[in-house]
Design brief:
This protein has one helix at about 5-35; strands spanning about 45, 50-60, 65, 70, 75-80, 85-90, 100, 105-110, 115-120, 125-135. The protein is an alpha+beta fold. The strands form two sheets. Strands 1, 2, 3, 5 and 8 form a five-stranded mixed sheet that branches. Strands 4-10-9-6-7 form a five-stranded mixed sheet, with no helix packed on it. The longest helix has 28 residues, at about 5-35.
Length: about 140
């Protein structure tokens, strides 16, 4: 049996174990969500103009990730909807980013030819946004 002075120490250890368990669970959930898609850093593919890359922007928990991405002309950005509801990619800068509804687990691909900075939002919730910087 423990004394009353040991109870605060036990509570602290229980709290630490719970926090660590939650951290491990979060890492497992977020790493599993990324499997099967090109990494945010991009993957190479051959193209007539050189080496083009595919980049992935995921949407989950009402957030685009990464929120800002830098690509080169000729690269492709794949938007992947990991949420359980539809999203719609829309850019105020250009008609280049007008996806229509992307269903849960759906994808939308855009190849960037010209340099520029492209701001985009989820047209169904304008506070959810990101930026694509296209530069050589």
């Amino acid at each position: 049996m423990s004394s009353n002075s040991d109870q605060p120490k036990e509570i602290i250890w229980v709290f630490i174990v719970i926090v660590l368990a939650l951290f491990i669970a979060a890492v497992a959930v977020f790493s599993r969500a990324q499997k099967g898609y090109p990494p945010a850093g991009g993957t190479e593919s051959s193209s007539p103009t050189g080496t083009a890359r595919d980049y992935t922007v995921t949407y989950a928990n009402r957030v685009f990730s990464p929120t800002t991405i830098r690509v080169k002309p000729g690269d492709t950005v794949v938007f992947v909807n990991l949420s359980s509801s539809n999203i719609k990619i829309l850019s105020n800068d250009t008609a280049l980013l007008m996806s229509g509804d992307i269903p849960a687990q759906g994808k939308y691909m855009v190849k960037f030819i010209n340099e520029g900075i492209f701001h985009y939002t989820n047209a169904l919730e304008s506070s959810e946004s990101g930026i694509i910087v296209v530069k050589k």
